Amino acid sequence: MLQVARLSPKLLGDSAPLVHGFLESQRSANGGFIDRGGSSDLYYTVFGIDSLIALRAEFPVEPLVAYLHSFGSGESLDLVHLACLARGWSAIPAALRAQAPVDRILAILETHRAADGGYHPSRGAERGTIYGCFLAWGAYQDLGHPMPQPERIADCLAHLKAADGGYSNQDDMPLGLTPPTAAAATLMRQLGRPIEATTQAWLLARCTAEGGFLAHPDAPLPDLLSTATALHALVGMHADLDPIAEPCLDFVDSLWTNRGSFYGHWGDDQLDCEYTYYGLLALGHLSF
Asked: N or C: the chain end with fewer CB closer than 10 Å?
């Protein structure tokens, strides 16, 4: 994903410095990046750092290392922020990355493994979620370790296919959701498993005529998260994006603000590092 986001400056052109300026404005004094409420948050920090990396911009490493150290081995973190801790350490130069408590982070991560072999935000769950599996897979990759029994992830995903052909984070759902479906397709590709043609068709059907992807079949408006993740999954499936590329580019452009970031959807009125990154990811895929 980060490799693709690095292509975004092709379309940003002279606007790239605006994005850099916005990201710098989101930096906190403690080395992290702020959330929408103005407080430093590890989740938003990952998006801030990855966005700077996508722009090939330098960032102060020592404050970030100190910020990551403040979370210890992640004992007090939920699954989302534990994965973000792993992601944060992966952005640190190799000489300093050796300070990361890798073994302890992975041990805590395994406490989130569900009985079906997937991963769940809550410990002791019977069924994993696609989001949990995606976070865990990314954390193992970021920390440079193979996931134990990866084939069990595919077994978990099989139970999360919705009746309409998409995927959801719960069993027996009538409608799929775009981000989980995109994550499921990406995980299956990482696992070397075949992806059903119906999954590609389901994702393409979520693209509106005006551009942008809907979060689910009944969603009133497209959004940037669904658009970026759907594009990423479709490219991984070698789908032909030519028929939707121009409308999607228009959609992303409609969310741009000259403050150097992107709104999450047409009804959004706040900017943050997360949607900045999703904007860069979408532009990266649309720059081919």
From this structure: C
CA distance 57 to 18: 12
Q: Which of 62, 188, 171 is nearest to 127 (CA)?
A: 171
**Inter-residue contact 8 to 286 (CB < 8 Å):** no
- Give dist(CA 186, CA 227) in Å, integer: 15
Q: State the pLDDT at residue 172.
A: 86
Q: Rounded to whole angstroms, what are the CA distances from 163 to 12, 123, 160, 177, 209?
A: 39, 27, 10, 11, 24
Task: Give the whole-angstrom CA distance, residue 144 versus residue 191.
Answer: 16
Structure tokens belonging to residue 32: 């992290």
* Residue recorded with tokens 């920090």: 45
Place of tokens 């989130």: 112
Listed in sequence order, the residues at least 6 apart from 247 whose beta carbon sits closer than 8 Å to its beta carbon are: 207, 208, 209, 210, 211, 212
CA distance 135 to 238: 23
Per-residue model confidence as pLDDT tens digits over 188-229: 999 999 999 999 999 999 999 999 999 999 999 999 999 999
